[in-house]
User: Fold this.
Amino acid sequence: MLAFAGTKKRDYVSLIACGVFFSACSLSTSSLAKPLLRCYVSYAGSEQAIESQIVQDPYDVKTTDIGERFTFKAIMVGKAQQIDYIKLYAYFQTRRSDIPVHQATYRPPFKVTKKESPLTPQNSVYAGDVERELQYRCTLQEVQ
Assistant:
């Protein structure tokens, strides 16, 4: 046991109780916070935000239609607050099927803070006979 000059035994008990209380509070607060992946995707002058939470099975994540020309999928795989990897996909829509035109993989470490922080730069993807342009950028943020 640590000894401080002039400290009585009951003071140690109070200090320990306070420490346990504050540790429990900080653990419960941080256990509620989870990473949020937010991608800002734009096509033909229209922008939309696509948000993704952590999943364990990447195949459960659906693609999002972007202007009936592209689809976009943002996947963050892991458990609780631990991100194993992030994958971003862009597909060009044709009459027959969606054609993959872009895939990016991001691996730890990730900077996840309460303030939204950049994960990717602004990216441009071109596809189709007339080279249609899809742009996106993604951020990470800790949310409750």
About this structure: DSSP finds one helix and ten strands in the chain. The chain has two domains: 1-32, 33-143.
